[in-house]
Design goal:
mainly alpha
Length: 137
Amino acid sequence: FTILFAISIILIISAYVFSEAISEYILVRLGIDHFNIILMNIFTLVFSLVTSVFLFTCVYVLAPDRHLRFIQGLPGAIFSTLGINIAFRIFLMFMNHSSKYTLLYGNFGGLFALLVGIYFVCVILNLGGKINVFFSR
């Protein structure tokens, strides 16, 4: 189940990066107009959200000792998906606008920021499981 969590987080990160940066760069290079770029970004964002909700629901249904139905795993999966996407956006804004952070911590600044980001992701995933326990009673 840890591997399934890792795969789902990697898919979410790759879909987020693909929707924000890579897809726009590829579509501009191909000469596709701006309207289609917006549609592609919306499609990749929706696809990443649906995929992550599905993967988190599978993890939350298969991981516990107690048998849960697929519907019972949805509240925690939706919370985890939204929480991780919001956390990634805040983390990226923080890293993009903090020039003094690397000045203060030097080369270890990125490592510290990564550890803080991983901590927040783990807290969000744990809270998603707690939400499922609350709603499954």
